[in-house]
């Protein structure tokens, strides 16, 4: 009976692990692929944890386009790829690079253009923005009741009589 209960508990834990598995996605972009476009809705954010480049002469970038932002040119580069192959060319003498991470708030369109002769690898996840209540973004306030003791009878100080000792026989 104990073994059956353990088996049921274990299968529930395995089912939960599969249902809430790793939300990260990975993509490989070759030099002849089309531009990778990832749409980030307004109530989401995208976290890029890995962006590497193997080969090619130009450096790959993550470009972000903000819908409706025409005054700033409409797009900007927010992350460059970390080069992992320094065996040829002028980069052969360089030390290994350090990869960075970036978080992009929606609404936005994330674009990654392929580089001729290179393979790009990106790992990212998109999550719902649960903490948007900090700036008045639609979160309703939570009422916290404060309990205080009801004042009752307050003791009033009274003078304590001082008894003077009297001598015996007096």
Number of strands: 9
What is the makeup of the main sheet? 5 strands, mixed
Order of helices and strands: HEEEEEEEEE
Which descriptor suits the 3D outline? Answer: elongated
Total helices: the number is 1
Q: In angstroms, what separates the terminal alpha carbons?
A: 92 Å
Low-confidence stretches: 134-141
> What is the arithmetic mean of pLDDT?
76
Task: Report the radius of gyration as a whole number of Å.
Answer: 33 Å
Verbal overview:
The chain is mainly beta. The protein is about 10% helix and about 30% strand. The protein contains 1 helix and 9 strands; from the N terminus they run αβββββββββ. The chain is elongated, with a radius of gyration of 33 Å.
Secondary-structure topology with pairs:
Blueprint: H1 2-19, E1 25-29, E2 36-40, E3 44-55, E4 61-65, E5 75-80, E6 82-83, E7 102-105, E8 108-112, E9 118-128
Parallel strand pairs: 3-6
Antiparallel strand pairs: 1-9, 2-8, 3-7, 3-9, 4-5, 4-8
């Amino acid at each position: 009976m104990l073994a059956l209960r353990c088996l049921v508990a274990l299968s529930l834990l395995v089912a939960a692990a599969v249902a809430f598995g790793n939300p990260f996605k990975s993509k490989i972009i070759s030099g002849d692929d089309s531009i990778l476009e990832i749409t980030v809705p307004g109530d989401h954010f995208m976290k890029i944890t890995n962006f590497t480049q193997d080969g090619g002469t130009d450096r790959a970038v993550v470009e972000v386009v903000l819908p409706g932002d025409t005054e700033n040119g409409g797009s900007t580069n927010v992350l460059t790829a970390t080069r992992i192959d320094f065996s040829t060319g002028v980069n052969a003498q360089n030390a290994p690079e350090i990869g960075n991470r970036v978080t992009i708030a929606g609404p936005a369109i994330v674009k990654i253009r392929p580089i001729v002769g290179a393979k790009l690898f990106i790992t990212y996840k998109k999550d719902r923005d649960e903490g948007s209540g900090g700036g008045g973004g639609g979160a309703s306030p939570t009422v916290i009741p404060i309990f205080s003791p009801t004042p009752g009878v307050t003791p009033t100080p009274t003078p304590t009589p001082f008894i003077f000792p009297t001598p015996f026989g007096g």
